[in-house]
Task: structure prediction
Amino acid sequence: MKKCPAIVNITFDENSLHGIDKIKELHNLEKYGRIWLTIGHLFTIFGGSSLRSASTGNVKEVLNLVRRDTAKTVVQAAAKQATSEANQTAYAITQANWEYFFTSFDSLSDIKRKEIEELAFQQALQHQKSPKEYVFWKSIYMGCQL
Result:
């Protein structure tokens, strides 16, 4: 990674602005992907298949008050988690595939970086007649850092 060049008075055309928006979107997708990976992994531990034998306790009256199927599912999952025994939860934590989780977590950055590289390469090819925009996109493609 090299230092980014100083580009003075650069103006972006519509295509470059769209590319910059796409990069922002990729950053947001990575952030949301990390959140959903974490939620999914925690759900696997605390509400997944290893806890299916957990009873729902005394929440049947509450389930009758809830009308929507989605809400009932959420309440049932919460009841399973709340009434599960500590040893079931401990077993689920030890059986969780942590290596796969962290590999997936790290892969999101790699996927984002590859997508940005491809986008920057395409933008650099399209802006060969505009020297400042070309230098900008080439620098992103080469991986410059501030």
About this structure: Residues 15 and 25 are 15 Å apart (CA to CA).
